[in-house]
Amino acid sequence: DTGVSQDPRHKITKRGQNVTFRCDPISEHNRLYWYRQTLGQGPEFLTYFQNEAQLEKSRLLSDRFSAERPKGSFSTLEIQRTEQGDSAMYLCASSPLAGPQETQYFGPGTRLLVL
Amino acid sequence: AQSVAQPEDQVNVAEGNPLTVKCTYSVSGNPYLFWYVQYPNRGLQFLLKYITGDNLVKGSYGFEAEFNKSQTSFHLKKPSALVSDSALYFCAVRDSTGGGNKLTFGTGTQLKVEL
After folding, report:
1. Are B111 and B102 spatial neighbours (Cβ–Cβ below 8 Å)?
2. Best mutation site among B44, B46, B51, B91 for testing chain A: the one with the most A CBs within 10 Å?
3. Nearest Cβ partner for A101 among B4, B46, B51
4. C-alpha distance from B39 to closest chain A C-alpha (Å)
5. How many angstroms separate the CA atoms of A47 and B100, rounded?
6. Which is it for the CA torsion B78, B80, B84, B88, positive or negative?
7. Tens digit of pLDDT for each residue in A75-104?
8. Measured between alpha carbons, how far is B31 from B99 in angstroms, rounded to an integer?
């Protein structure tokens, strides 16, 4: 049983560039979540999918951010026109469809540095 | 709205001694409570959760947590700390009503176990 995987693990980009991250959830997990973690803080919720449907988005998710899960399997998170404030660890998690008491299992994260 | 407080940024304990990492929460309905651990440059690893039932929950690596509804607390404990337990610990909550499926995390507590 493989866990949640994320790619790339690290990304350095220049301000204004676009970046895209990929998350592969645990197989057969219907729900997929994206969180952002900045230094010294806990993860903050960005968005979540149930199968291919994006069901909730945080106000943290500005218009420059977009997430997709086209076939209900892997997901991508794109940030357009990156800003230095976007520098953070982006975490993906997945869970089975078992109600709100389900456990979310996290991937290793993608660390983004915007210069 | 749901929220979590971890009042201690850092906890120091000697190896072999018991440890406690504190967490208090606020929700509108009933809480689903979680503890995760994060090692440097890694994602979050699930330790244990409280959904309902017995107030003492046992989890991975000898950790346990006690749910106290009157004090709205969910403190993490271990009877005998190991140096390898040194890591960043996060408490998280999900509201059983109206909170959606997102987890709300505390700011984390750095645990340092010394010889």
Report:
1. no
2. B44
3. B51
4. 10
5. 11
6. positive
7. 999 999 999 999 999 999 999 877 767 899
8. 10
